[in-house]
Amino acid sequence: MPTQSSISSAQPSVVQFARGIPPLEAIATTELTAQAEAVLEERNDIFQYAPLGRNQGDPNLRDQLGAFHGVAAEDIFVGNGSLQVLDLLAGYFLKNRRALVYVEAPTYDRAIEIFERHGAEVVGIPLEADGLDIECLQRRLASDVPALLYTIPDFQNPAGVTLSLEKRKALVDLAATHGFTILEDIPYRELRYHGTAPALLRELSDRGAVITIASLSKILSPGLRIGYAISNKNTSQALAGLAEGTYLSPVPFCQAVAARSFATGLVDSSIKRVRELLRPRHDQAMAAAQKWLGDNILCIPNGGYYLGVRLRTDMMEASFLKSARAEGVVLTRGSGFYSKSQQPGQGTLFLRLPFQALDPAEFAKGLERLVKVAETAEPQENAVYAGGPA
Ligand SMILES: Cc1ncc(COP(=O)(O)O)c(C=O)c1O
What we know:
By secondary structure, this protein is an alpha/beta fold.
């Protein structure tokens, strides 16, 4: 049987900072296989089309998700992974509307891609150590109100930042005053290794201005492709209408496995397993980051997968990535986490450093090499930042 451990799969001398996926050992594959076998024995309806008529997802799964989040099952819409849910939400909210979307700068690159594909102008609001720069947002709102504001409030991808409770309240107030919808994307929320979670934006809003997007990818299995939105009956029905016209329904088998995993306690034990596996990696990675990167770090996250770094260097991004590669460090292009119009300031490179799949010694080795690359960089005269203007 093929095995895939991200710790052992990387070539010994190369440190992979490129992908934010769960390490295989964080997925309860044996227990999931047992759930899948039980579903095959118990249910032959999973080989048929799911019932149509604005299908919001498998009713058993929606009941389980509703209980997990303390919301009504009718407020839940299930898709094939949360990215697909985001795509449908973009299709629904950006249709026939002024297509302006505010995102955090930096933010998840695929979300930018989705909004742009739906014709939106995507504008980044700077991200601080405690989340969105609310004052900057207020200034922007004075002249331009978006259709949507997309935020990843817990252990943000790519910067690891968590939005503070004060800022959550301020954001919800701004949405109510100016009349825009907030999409909060929370795939990492359950992966908290220290401290307690601030309330969800949806919980702070009494006017239905917040839609939560969530996923089982980081807490159970990304291969099941289960993502969902928590909104209200009307929005869920509208999304179901769009889904039905595109792919009929999410995959019945995967939904049945997920529903059974909730019912049998596997989701809870899987969350515990992931936290126990990643907490020591996180703790050691943060100690190494403080040693090697000091105040280049955006914040020390208390959970999730990512450490965000604003590295001060005159080097252009492409040269930095190439030199890092030569030193045995593979990085994602940090400028890809910014919309085209907003890029990190000149003299700064943004780096996303995922720690979830790396042995702590490997992670520390990667940081040491990055520092070496930054230190040996020849200052480039008249350097123009690779990603464009600040
Ligand atoms: C913020 C964010 N949203 C969505 C996704 C995609 O999740 P899914 O597997 O549910 O499509 C990711 C995956 O890395 C992510 O980081």
